[in-house]
Amino acid sequence: MYEFASGGGTFFVLRHVGGARYEETGRGRYPIALAAYIALVEQHHADHRGRGERPEPDTYLAREGRRG
Fold first, then answer.
1. What is the pLDDT of residue 68?
2. Please, which residues have CB within 8 angstroms of residue 4's CB and are 6 or more apart in sequence?
3. Where in the chain are the domains?
4. Three-state SS annotation for 17-64
């Protein structure tokens, strides 16, 4: 659902909106953008768990739903 990307020393949080389209949902220096990414993914996972679904694992989270 979300991607963490960089370009020219700036980091971005991108959200897939369909097809090959993405929407920027966060931007900044590494620690700021990464914190935004983690918060978004944690909320996304909480939404899935609230519906009784198992969210996909994420490489930036050490364990499912927990920051490393």
1. 42
2. 11, 12, 13, 14, 33, 34, 37, 60
3. 2-50
4. EECCEEEEEEEECHHHHHHHHHHHHHHHHHHHHHCCCCCCCCCCCCEC
Question: What pTM did the predictor assign?
Answer: 0.74
Phi, psi of 66 (to 5 degrees): -130, 140
Task: Give the span between the Cα atoms of 50 and 34, in whole angstroms.
Answer: 24
Measured distance CA(13)–CA(4) in Å, rounded? 5
What is the bridge-based pairing of β-strands 10-18 and 2-7?
A: antiparallel
Q: pLDDT tens digits for 36-67?
A: 998 998 898 889 889 999 888 887 776 544 44
- What sign for the dihedral angle of Cα 6, 33, 44, 68? positive
